[in-house]
Amino acid sequence: MPTDKLLLLQKLRHLLGLFETRRIAVASKVLGVGEENLRQTITDLQSHFDAQLFQESGGEFLPTAAGAAVHRYLLAAIDEMERKISAHVSSSNPERAKQIRLIGAHAANPLTRSVLPDFVEQLSQSTSFDFQIKGFASQADLIRALRAREVHFAVMLPPKRGHVDKPSIGMAPFSPQRAVVCIYAMRFAMISFRQTGLTSLGDLVGQRVATGFGPNSLVDEYLDAFLRDHVGGRENISPVPCENIADAMQRLRAREIAATPFPLDGIKITSLARGLVRPLEGMLSRATVQKITHDHPGLRVRCTELFGNRNVTMIETPIIVYAAQDMADREVHAMIAAAKDFFRFYIKHRYGKMPPAGFFDPKPLGLMTHPASVAHFGHSQGGALH
Questions:
Q1: In total, how many domains does the chain have?
Q2: pTM for the model
Q3: Of 11, 72, 81, 261, whose CB neighbour count within 10 A is largest?
Q4: Closest by alpha carbon to 206, among 221, 218, 196, 195?
Q5: Is the pLDDT of residue 170 over 50?
């Protein structure tokens, strides 16, 4: 390979390190490169791409729109390169090829897009299987695929207590006796752009609000909880059906709707901190909280202050890995071990502290679990992130 190409690859590696750390001192230590060399790399690459890639603010190097595009392209290029190399190695060395294990996930879930690929990569490295993600348009489709053994594992919200599929999906109830491990807790709130002038749940009267979210959507029920106490229900808003939460966010950006229920994990923290997107304020009544927590295993409702917005109600729901009912115990044990290793440090990175010891055990959430999961955890007490 020509020297200039090798030099460009080296500089792109340094650029990726700065994208991931956002701080030049941290990137310098991680990469083993002097800070002045990194600054020169930024200058060289900005000249190469003829675009400003970063804005320095308070010691942080924040990517511009052009920088974010380069970052996405680099990650996609690395993934594609690894996939092609893996495919070539497997075809050249059949004896080394791994069996494939499919993990189903809701394609529009922010966790599926941002975190699950890294987790799946670790699973493939730490087990004797090659794990791959299979996306689904709705949780109902995901449940159906798990029952039909089209996937080996599924990452999803716990189905509503007493859940039975709609006739179009099949009349057999989804058995909850497959929960394997809790990996995360997703926090939903009603959000709006600050320019709308909306500040509270009560301001939604007569407004265009995202609804729908697909068959058997749990997010629709969270929406009903937000609306029940403050606007008297859906009849007092202008509902706008959306395919999923990603579609709702696109409509919110386009100002086609005024507000939507959305997982806070799917919003860039900088957008919240700068006030571009704001969570709407408003507490839920005790009766509403009791109803929604009774219907949904493991769900918690908290009222807190978030980036200067007081009394923001967040509905916190666990994200669970489920296994097909006949999944071998050894594979379930391997999944639990890998999940605990990965998400223990991911949660510490995001929240600044390790999750409690029993956080990963799905049984204390009220879920009937896979026998191998029961054997693995014993009788832990569970625990919330906060």
A1: 3
A2: 0.64
A3: 261
A4: 196
A5: no
Distance of CA 197 to the CA centre of its chain: 28
pLDDT digits (tens, 9 = 90+) for 7-33: 777 888 888 878 877 888 877 877 778
Residue 295 lies in a domain: yes
Q: Answer yes or no: is 255 within a domain.
A: yes
73 CB-contact burial (10 Å; exposed 0-12 / middle 13-18 / buried 19+): exposed
Q: β-pairing, 300-306 with 309-323?
A: antiparallel
Which amino acid is located at 109 in the chain? N
* Range 26-57 burial, b when 16+ CB lie within 10 A, else e: ebbeebebeeeebeebbeebbeeeeeebbeee
Length of the chain: 386
The distance in angstroms from the start CA to the end CA of the chain is 51
Question: 313 with 323, same domain?
Answer: no
Task: Calculate the alpha carbon distances from 325 to 90, 136, 175, 180 in Å.
Answer: 30, 20, 9, 10
Q: What is the tens place of the pLDDT at every residue in 84-142?
A: 665 555 555 554 557 899 999 887 777 777 788 889 998 888 888 899 999 887 777 88
| C-alpha closest to that of 43 among 18, 77, 20 | 18
Q: Looking at residue 40, which CATH number applies to its domain?
A: 1.10.10.10
Give Cβ neighbours of residue 28 (< 8 Å, ≥ 6 apart). 34, 35, 38
Query: Letter for the amino acid at 258?
Result: A
Range of 44's domain?
3-74
Long-range Cβ pairs for the range 40-49 (8 Å, 24+): 41/11, 41/14, 41/15, 42/15, 42/18, 44/11, 45/11, 45/12, 45/15, 48/8
